[in-house]
Amino acid sequence: MQHFGDALIGRVRALGNPVCIGLDPYLDRIPPLFRDGDMSPGNPLTAPAVEAFLKAVLDRADGRVAVVKPQIAFFERMGWRGLRALDEVSAHARKRGMLVLLDAKRGDIGSTADAYAGAYLTADAPMPADAMTLNPYLGRDTLQPYLNAAKDTGRGLFILVKTSNPGSGDYQDLKVGNRSLAETVADSLKAMSGELEGPETGWSSLGIVVGATYPGEAERIREILPKTIFLVPGYGAQGATAADAVKGFVKGPSGLEGGIVSSSRGVLYPAGSDTDSAAAWEQAMDAAIDMAVSELGGAISA
Ligand SMILES: O=c1ccn([C@@H]2O[C@H](COP(=O)(O)O)[C@@H](O)[C@H]2O)c(=O)[nH]1
């Protein structure tokens, strides 16, 4: 059975960069090369066009990137055809050796969490993901069904701790004693993280989300959870730099490690990609991927 934490860290070490490409298909930004019809969410041609676009992105990323993060909202927006496209795109990524981290941010009472875990994480899940994001707001008992599934299947979990958005401080920075709520949540995940530590690298399959836009908080949270992989959004389109993004990383055998840095809009829609020329689009996409790979690869080797 694959252990998600070991598999992810192994691939990042092998490739020398922590890039995670976010798959957020904004319908009005799909390049002309792939568009079909009016690209309205209910148009039956829209989801296949999105699927073709994302598969082409994955082909450009082949051999350069360890993991991709489809954002389920953009697929749900297209109804059942969108979910079918998500399934196809995920299968395409896996065929190219990339892990699939589903950004679904689920969070509900335990009995409903059971159903979500059964959709994405259990051995018989119809839409399997290698890992998924979760919202811990309803309490630790609501994370248990996902933890059970992760133990059974080796899949991974990423719990929201300190998100990248400007309003994340509204609740996450509130003081609980002398710590922020985000740090308190991190502390409460210690035991669960320990239960999923990998036999090869020691890194846990229970990860957390820590925005690149709050590098100081990333350093404090790393002290609380030394073996927990960080999923770091906020680099690129949200303004954080590569140096900010790796603040919570630690020294490993081949450079800094312990996290992946996601970039969605910055990679998917670069300058020059708004074209109906296949060659020009490929060139723009290669340049965008190269930029993320070299900036973030450089930041972990510095
Ligand atoms: O704290 C978080 C958690 C998740 N996200 C997700 O990332 C992408 C946005 O990425 P860009 O690189 O800014 O396009 C989107 O799917 C969010 O839901 C986040 O931004 N912050």
Automatic annotation (TrEMBL):
Alphabetically ordered keywords of this record: Decarboxylase, Lyase, Pyrimidine biosynthesis
UniProt KW Transmembrane helix keyword: no
Family recorded in the similarity comment: Belongs to the OMP decarboxylase family. Type 2 subfamily.
GO aspect biological process, one term: 'de novo' UMP biosynthetic process
CDD domains linked to this entry: OMP_decarboxylase_like
Domain of life (superkingdom): Bacteria
EC number(s) per entry: 4.1.1.23
Active site (UniProt): 105 (proton donor)
Name the record gives this protein: Orotidine 5'-phosphate decarboxylase
Pathway annotation: Pyrimidine metabolism; UMP biosynthesis via de novo pathway; UMP from orotate: step 2/2
NCBIfam families named in the record: pyrF_sub2 (TIGR02127)
Keyword Lyase annotated: yes
Organism of provenance: Nisaea acidiphila
Ranges of residues in domain Orotidine 5'-phosphate decarboxylase: 18-284
Catalytic activity as recorded in UniProt: orotidine 5'-phosphate + H(+) = UMP + CO2
Enzyme class (EC, first level): lyase
InterPro entries from the UniProt entry: Aldolase_TIM (IPR013785), OMPdecase_AS (IPR018089), OMPdecase_type-2 (IPR011995), OMPdeCOase_dom (IPR001754), RibuloseP-bd_barrel (IPR011060)
GO terms for MF: orotidine-5'-phosphate decarboxylase activity
